[in-house]
Amino acid sequence: MLWKRFVNRLCSVIGASVLVASGIMLATASPAAAHDTCIGHPSDPSVACLRSDHSIVDACDRHSDGHQVWARVNYSNGAIVSFFDTNGANSGCGNYAPASYANGFFISYNVCVETEGCGSPLYRPGWGSPTW
User: In sequence order, which residues have a C-beta less than 8 Å from that of residue 121 and are 6 or more positions away?
Assistant: First the structure.
């Protein structure tokens, strides 16, 4: 009988510990901000990435071939903003904060490479496919 009471008590303590740990994990988890999303160029290793709670877009040249790399951010009002990775294939990327632009909000982004054109865009959910 003593053994059965001990096992029941132990299970109660373990169960409570698991519930507390689960609550802590849920409370500290960041919903949509937990990941960065990149889209690559079809013929070049360069990428454009969305990061920092979807507040920064990077243009990253990953091929030391002398071709300029830039990212394009497309807005709901039809505006397009392009920015370059100004240091070429060296460490670091070009950055842009795509806040609202002329009363529009950004709906997609993609990466472009000089002489090779632009890759397909990655879309905000509900505006096209594929989505971030």
Answer: 39, 72, 74, 108, 109, 110, 128
